[in-house]
Amino acid sequence: MVTSPRTPAPRPPRMRFAEATPVVLRPKIGKCVAARLDVISITGGLLTVPRPFERGCNVNLMFLSTKGAVSGAVQMLAPLCWNQQPFRFVALAEDDQRKLKTAIQASLSWTENMGRVESHRAW
Predict the structure, then answer these.
(1) pTM, whole model, 2 decimals?
(2) DSSP track, 62-114
(3) pLDDT lower than 70: segments of the chain
């Protein structure tokens, strides 16, 4: 039997922050850790951390978006280097998910509009 190859699902849109966006990470055991959110999508993101967490560690992440506070449970992935670590959301309430999606869409719309302005300036 011949099967057709599966096409991978498109990656969800992501937002890169122009300014430092502080994040608080709260592990199940231990003290809260301050970090910086560099990239975010509805499925996860990338943090600048003072010290990487153990791969697979579950923590609560909280940050302030343009649409309000967002809080969710995340799983830390393998660090990229000594101070950058990706994560994936494992639990995100509907309200937080809505705020995050809206903030990402607003950022993408703003970026697209700025691109149009820049293309008009070229003429």
Answers:
(1) 0.78
(2) EEEETTEEEEEEEEE---SSSSEEEEEEEEE-HHHHHHHHHHHHHHHHHHHHH
(3) 1-8, 11, 13-14, 17, 109-123
